[in-house]
Every structure is written in C-alpha cells, then in structure tokens.
Write a structure and sequence with these properties.
The protein is mainly alpha-helical. It folds into two domains: 48 residues, Orthogonal Bundle (Arc Repressor Mutant, subunit A); 126 residues, Tetracycline Repressor, domain 2.
C-alpha cells in the first residue's frame, strides 16, 4: 500500500474518532469527517465503504492505543493491589478533570448503539473493555491477589459506574467512592 494512501487513511481515522468521541456516531456526517481530514467525501469512500466501516477502523486503532496507554499506566502503579487500585482511580480522576472530559468513548458508543445489538462496533468495544479487564487482572494477579480475574471484573464495574455517574452529576466524588469500594473488595 503506498505511503500516501496509508497517511490519508490514518488522517481519516483520526478525524472520525475525534468527531465521534466529541459528538457521537449518529450526530457526525461523513462530509464533516472528510472536511476535518482535509479530503473530499469521494476520497473518504475510496478508503472506507461506509461510515460503519470507518467507525470500526477508528475503534480498532484507538483500542490498540488505549491498550498501550494502559501498559504505560501499569508501569507507574504500585505492585500492592490496594495501592494499585488507589493509583488506578487517581488516574481516572485526573482524566475526569480535563476540560470537556466525556468518559470512555467505547462506553459512550455502545450506549449510543444500544438498539443495534449486532453492530460490529459493539463487538470491537467489548474486546477493548475485555482487554482492559484482563490487563487489570494481570496487574492484580502479579501483585499477589487471589481471584484476580473476578476482582478485576468488580473493579471494572466500579470504574464504569463511576465514569457514568461523574458524567451525569458532574461530581468527581463518585470516583472517590468507587476507589474506596474497590479497596474494600481487595481486603
């Protein structure tokens, strides 16, 4: 594949993800994505058959980036499970402090596509969330925690719930409560 074609596809994927993350899948048109990528709508369709295919490509790409970010975060977390969970939720709260924070793009997307259970983007989002859960289970297991897979699932529930409630209420206190609950689980 020629380098220019790869660069164009990358620009399209980045433009699409940015706009989908900011405003949602259904509220963004391909014309707007093409404009942000600096191409024509025709060029966009030369690279992606449909908006759904573009969404899938954007989610796959950003799922890989998210996993790399998690690895970096993991290297900076303490090994002891309770301290690790403290650090994990501290990172979540730092993220929630950013201007225009709107939670997890994968979670928001699946909620937006809730009435389309067979949509391929839902499967991609599920794989990304599973990868996060497995990453957390490995960290907890390496820290000596028994039943790390089950505990990771419980911590994920707390994290996802905290993100949604912080968005609904605009109150970071939900993240702090979730962190305390997660630490109790690990006792």
């Amino acid at each position: 594949m020629p380098r220019d074609k790869d660069q164009t596809q990358h620009r399209i994927v980045e433009a699409a993800y940015y706009l989908f993350y900011q405003r949602g899948f259904t509220r963004v048109g391909v014309e707007e994505i093409a404009a942000r990528a600096g191409i024509t709508k025709r060029t966009l369709y030369a690279h992606f058959r449909s908006k759904d295919d573009l969404l899938a490509a954007a989610l796959r790409y950003y799922g890989e980036l998210d996993l790399e970010r998690l690895k970096v975060i993991g290297r900076g977390l303490p090994a002891r499970p309770q301290a690790m969970v403290d650090g994990f939720f501290a990172k979540l709260l730092d993220w929630a402090d950013r201007p225009r924070w709107s939670g997890s793009g994968f979670t928001r997307l699946v909620l937006e596509l809730a009435d389309l259970p067979g949509h391929p983007a839902r499967a991609i989002a599920a794989r990304a969330k599973t990868a996060t859960e497995l990453w957390l289970a490995d960290l907890l297991g390496n820290g000596g925690l028994k039943m790390s897979r089950e505990r990771a699932r419980e911590v994920m529930l707390l994290m996802e719930g905290a993100m949604v409630l912080m968005l609904i209420h605009g109150d970071r206190g939900y993240g702090k409560v979730a962190a305390r609950a997660a630490k109790r689980l690990l006792r």
